[in-house]
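Letters spell out the chain; backbone shape is given numerically. Both lines appear below:
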Amino acid sequence: MSVIQPAVEIPFSERCRNGSFKGVLRWHQLDTFWAALRNAAGKGWYIYAVGEAVPDSPSSAEDVQRFIDEIDALLRREHDEDYCGIVYADDLQTPALIKIFDPNNLGSSCGSSMNPPKPGWILSLQQPTDLTDTAPLPNNRRRWWNRLFGA
């Protein structure tokens, strides 16, 4: 008789570091991605700005919608390229973990570097754990985050 083992949840930091992610390459694809995410805004997303306090509860659907609007505006304003390529998800159709890289701290976001940059922001259905390193969050990003969520 075989025993069914319960599913083991992969720790958040391991999912971020070693998970398989697909990039949103074009701006029109990002529009489609955001539209799908807006429809799933009430699923219990945690919004985490790496370098800030880890959220202890999921964001409201309204906060997710506002974050999408604001991060989209920031990315389009500061990533002056004809392609996107800085938003990655574990699944582009039904994401559970989304990494958004800061246009001002890209390095090699594809992970080919020995020290790839950490994402600037993460949306996750799993509660995040602290991913900070020794680099402090730049003041302009801290002000942007505080304006958005009044932290």
In short: Residues 19-144 form one domain. The CA atoms of residues 52 and 137 lie 8 Å apart.
